[in-house]
Specification:
The chain is about 30% helix and about 30% strand. By secondary structure, the protein is of the alpha+beta class.
């Protein structure tokens, strides 16, 4: 049995359970003897998945996998959320996270850059477009990406009147507005 067919069999078990719980299957992967099922709320829903939802999903998925036994041998089932800083591995992951800050590491160095940081402004089945802090946009083939994830700005909110640390998204938006102003006045 191939890895893909194993994961397809697991997905057949997980999809209806996630749907019944009004959750979205973000990812299913196998790492050694661990089957990791990543669940989330549907795109656009405010707030994230709760621990109670994850606990219930874990019980239901585990019970059904024990009953169906989709994978030969021993394995560990892990049911989790994607977290605040989400790994982006598939075109669906990129499409889901449009509008968020991302960091991307490329497989090969292109134009002197191995890492690209900015706002994910568009994504399709083959490419992701990132707006850089200077306002330029860079379109990257998803197959050229070694590793990508969303970026969450950690730390306390700035104090009123204090200097704010800005996210790449805010910097890119300001740079885009500045370049639009320059074009309009030229």
């Amino acid at each position: 049995m191939t890895l893909e067919s194993e994961l397809d069999r697991v997905r057949e078990i997980v999809d209806p359970i996630a749907s019944d719980l009004d959750l979205d299957v973000y990812d299913i992967e196998r790492r050694g003897a661990t089957i990791r099922v990543t669940l989330d709320t549907h795109p656009g829903v405010e707030g994230g998945i709760t621990l109670d939802s994850l606990a219930l999903a874990t019980r239901l998925i585990s019970r059904e996998m024990d009953h169906v036994d989709p994978i030969p041998g021993h394995y560990t089932l892990e049911v989790t959320s994607p977290g605040l800083e989400r790994q982006l591995r598939t075109p669906a992951h990129f499409r889901r996270e449009v509008g968020k800050d991302v960091t991307v590491r490329l497989r090969a160095v292109e134009s002197g850059e191995r890492r690209v940081d900015g706002v994910l402004v568009a994504a399709d089945d083959t490419t992701a477009t990132i707006r850089l802090a200077d306002g330029d946009e860079r379109t990257i083939a998803i197959e050229a990406i070694d590793k990508a994830r969303t970026v969450f700005e950690w730390g306390p909110k700035p104090k009123p009147g204090g200097k704010k640390r800005r996210s790449p998204a805010a910097e890119a938006d300001e740079a885009s507005r500045d370049s639009t102003k320059e074009k309009q006045t030229s």
